[in-house]
Design a protein that fits this description.
With 323 residues, the protein is an alpha+beta fold. The chain has a single domain (23-245, 275-322), classed as Jelly Rolls. It has helices spanning 2-20, 40-43, 271-274, 278-291, 308-322, and strands spanning 44-48, 53-56, 61-66, 72-76, 79-90, 99-106, 117-123, 132-138, 149-151, 162-168, 172-177, 180-186, 201-208, 228-242, 292-295. The termini are far apart. The structure holds 2-acetamido-2-deoxy-beta-D-glucopyranose (5 copies). Residues 77-78, 243, 245-246 line the site of one 2-acetamido-2-deoxy-beta-D-glucopyranose (NAG). Its EC number is 2.4.1.207. InterPro entries: Beta-glucanase-like (IPR000757), Beta-glucanase/XTH (IPR044791), ConA-like_dom_sf (IPR013320), XET_C (IPR010713), XTH (IPR016455).
């Protein structure tokens, strides 16, 4: 009997190493599910494929589909100049190679030559393979320089809803998955003009990315598995809303006159949004160490001269290693 309990204890210890250590834990503060969840009618409009944008549960759940005839998508009515943007997303089940689901900020419809963009992209899935999450950003038309990073998940993103959030303000951009920061891009001198700096709308789309999304484009969309359905819930947008069609005099009003936010949390300039806590940084390093498998900053074949912000990371890395 004593042996039984000892071995059970041993198994528990082992499990906690294998299991818990492998799953990044969200470190406080928790940022998603703090703000009001926005119903479709209160914050969004269809962008395309309207018949494939289904508003369910009074608009608190939106299913967007890719079918043989069309992809689909919706976007925020307002533009935002910094803020916090979050959604619970459930990805298409079963075979979805070539299908891209995107949750992103962009102003490409307004600034065709010098647009800004901050992206979460989910790149189609083949059973047995791991799902791929890609993050990327462009600032002021920096489309010549892709700043992609790619991650695997520590869960099955098609099994249920998980939270994907973007913090964007004058200090940095942070991508979070279930409240675990997975990437931070500082508004440093090196990023300069490539840091997104004009009001953007929030988008959710699903489309055919056959040419590149899965295994370098060798696995195009197979419409025998259509419709491909991605679900969005718990939509949150808090920050500096700016009305492009009826702008105030001069520049957008934010940042500077940042409105007082609900619950005293200020997504544009509040401490929890302009800096990561030490536990958040530690969680981010663990998540990146384990789940990031591509970073443009390590792609020497692509960039013989690395974008300048990559050097910042390296300098920090080497100074840490020299300690
Ligand atoms: C922006 O202002 C215009 C004109 O006042 C108004 O019709 C529109 O609904 C506003 N948009 C938003 C998102 O508030
Ligand atoms: C997914 O695949 C399983 C097993 O092949 C099948 O039973 C199920 O109906 C499929 N689900 C959908 C939504 O197509
Ligand atoms: C961003 O800036 C903060 C504060 O200076 C620093 O601690 C952090 O390491 C930087 N992050 C990146 C990814 O460079
Ligand atoms: C963004 O691009 C425009 C047009 O190319 C340029 O005039 C402007 O100075 C740029 N802004 C920044 C912040 O680099
Ligand atoms: C919408 O998505 C949810 C969650 O993924 C799913 O359970 C539901 O069947 C979908 N509804 C429709 C009408 O497609």
């Amino acid at each position: 009997m004593a042996y039984f309990w000892r071995s059970l204890l041993l198994q528990l210890v082992l499990l906690s190493f294998l299991g818990v250590a492998a799953v990044p834990q969200a470190a406080p503060p928790r940022l998603s599910w703090v703000f009001r969840h926005i119903a479709f009618a209160d914050g969004f409009v269809d962008v395309y494929g309207g018949e494939n944008v289904q508003k369910l549960r009074n608009g608190m759940l939106v299913n967007i589909s890719l079918t043989r005839s069309s992809g689909s998508g919706f976007k925020s009515r307002a533009d935002y100049y910094y803020g916090f943007f979050s959604a619970g997303i459930k990805l298409p089940v079963n075979y979805s190679a070539g299908v891209v689901v995107a949750f992103y900020l962009s102003n490409a419809e307004v600034f065709s030559r010098n647009h800004d963009e901050i992206d979460f992209e989910f790149l189609g899935h083949i059973e047995g393979d791991e799902w791929v999450l890609q993050t990327n950003l462009y600032g002021n038309g920096s489309v010549g320089t892709g700043r992609e990073e790619r991650f695997h998940f520590w869960f099955d993103p098609a099994a249920t809803f998980h939270e994907y959030s973007i913090i964007w303000n004058h200090r940095h951009i942070v991508f979070l998955v279930d409240d675990v920061p997975v990437r931070e891009v500082n508004h440093s001198a090196a990023m300069a003009g490539a840091f997104p700096g004009k009001p953007m709308s929030l988008y959710a789309t699903i489309w055919d990315g056959s040419a590149w999304a899965t295994r370098g484009g060798t696995r195009p969309v197979d419409y025998a598995y259509a419709p491909f359905v991605a679900s969005f819930a718990a939509l949150e947008m808090e920050g500096c809303a700016w009305n492009r069609t009826a702008p105030g005099p001069g520049e957008p009003p934010c940042p500077g006159g940042v409105p007082v936010q609900r619950l005293g949390l200020r997504p544009v300039d509040g401490r929890d949004f302009v800096e990561l806590s030490p536990p958040q940084r530690a969680a981010m390093e663990r998540a990146r160490g384990r789940f990031m498998f591509y970073s443009y900053c390590r792609d020497g074949a692509r960039y013989s001269v690395m974008p300048p912000e990559c050097g910042e990371g390296k300098r920090r890395l080497s100074s840490r290693h020299n300690k």
